[in-house]
Amino acid sequence: MAGAALVREASIPVTAHPGVAAGVVSNNPIPLPSGKEELREAFDMFNKMSQQLSSSYELLENRVADLTQELNMVSAQRMQELAEKEKIAEQLEGLLNVLPGGVIVLDSRGFIRQANPAARDMLGEPIEGERWMEIIERSFCPKKDDGHEISTKDGRRISIATRSLAEDGQIILLTDQTETRRLQSELSRHERLSALGQMVSALAHQIRTPLSAAMLYAGHLSGGALSQEQQSTFSNKLLKRLNHMERQVQDMLVFVKGDIPLNDVITCADLQQGVEEEVEVLLNPNGVKCQWLNHCPTHLLRCHKDALIGAILNLVNNAVQAGSTEIHIDLTLSAESSMSFSVSDNGPGIELSLLESVKDVFVTTKSQGTGLGLSVVESVAKRHGGNFTLDSKVGQGTCAKLQLPLAQLTQSTICEVGV
After folding, report:
1. Smallest Cα–Cα separation from 346: which of 324, 317, 320?
2. What is this structure's pTM?
3. pLDDT, tens digit, 9 for 90 and up, residues 104-121
4. pLDDT tens across 332-368, in order?
5. Alpha-carbon gap, residue 418 to 414, rounded angstroms
6. Buried b or exposed e, range 161-185, using 16+ CB within 10 angstroms
7. Contact, 283 vs 320, CB < 8 A?
8. Could you tell me if 296 and 332 are in contact, meaning their C-beta atoms sit under 8 angstroms apart?
9. Cα torsion at 170, 173, 174, 177 (round to 10°)?
10. Contact status, residue 311 vs residue 381, Cβ threshold 8 Å
């Protein structure tokens, strides 16, 4: 009996009693199996729970192995992506270093966070860590004829483009246009020189006719024995021929010179007054009526005043020579930063097939035309940063329009115009 009791006592921690298996600890005595059948059942239950525990542990081990494998795969994938990103970053940095254009990155406070070698070459050292406004004051020296570029103190012409970054800050792209502008100027000069022989031949023919007429009228005037009315008639005709020759020579000079400085700052009212003073010589002898409409008299233009007035006179002269009896000249704001100067007539108009070609050099629809007038107008418009367009309908007339950028209202422009 003592042996049986000992077996029962030894079976207490081993027996898979439901309370013990569930983790429940109680102070009440646990009933012990009283027979062999109960002991066998207890051992069977223990074996079952051991098998379940082994199965659960095996499942857990398999799950841990799967998760470890997945983690290793994700980690390897992340490492590969990181290596690829580092490779791309190195390539981008290499490209940034060899770019011919300057790249500058600003932070939210306007300090230069990063600059590539081209930017350092254009603007000099030091540059990184400096305020962008201080670099502008140190390196740039704007000139009146800069146009869309800005001159530096060492003579370069640089165009600047800015973009906002997704985070705070800006990226600035600097492009050195010095050599491009020099080559463009040289090419333009060669093109003008190549056309010079053709132009001289045409001008010689055109000047010879009014010159012969002027000499004839001058001969009549010097002969004496003329009435007051005859003297006045011959004087007016002589003046008309001389003015015609002057315009031809002026067109030739503008075409050959090409590059004209934009040193004048005038209001649109000043431009109107300048044109009105010159245009009477064209209008009065032909009895042509001219109506003005100026919607922007106080707005400012940076221009070459004489060249711009000469171009507008060419448009008026074309309208007169086309047989127009009425001309409308309008000055309007075409956009927030530009204005348009249009000359409309009631002449016969221009054929659609000729509308584009009439602006080419030496192309004319008039028997006595040189083909320079509209070419000079387009050249002057481009030099002022604007454009020149023609709109015409046969039997209804022609509208020639110059669109020009307005001058920025700064302290220097205010001083130049004296307002």
Report:
1. 324
2. 0.45
3. 888 888 888 888 888 888
4. 988 768 888 899 988 888 877 776 766 665 555 554 5
5. 6
6. eeeeeeeebeebebbbbbeeeeeee
7. yes
8. yes
9. -150
10. yes
